[in-house]
Design brief:
Strand order of the largest sheet: 1-2
Structural class: mainly alpha
Radius of gyration: 19 Å
Shape: extended
Number of domains: 1
Strand content: under 5%
Length: 109
Amino acid sequence: MELTKEQKVLESIVKKAWSDPVFKDNLIKGPVETIENFLGHPIHLPEGKTIAFVDQSSSSTIFINIPAEPNMEDVELNEEQLDIISGGTADHTPPIIVSASNYTPGIFG
């Protein structure tokens, strides 16, 4: 599978952060400026968006990302999801699938 241009850029940023602790620290403290210096040109974030890098490289820490809550007004449901809702369940919240980095199964009981 061929990587997109964005995926290639992100891969090169991560590899640089792995090999250069100063770059990684700068990336966390000032991501836009650090990326622009790395690339040699400005980046274009969508209006109202920011970018953040979080160091998840410690193998002694389990990292769990808290995703944005879905906007249920803007969701299109597939047939299976429509069947579940038409079954009359009171809870209309979709299942939340969260994965953890550095996770060992069984720690939550």
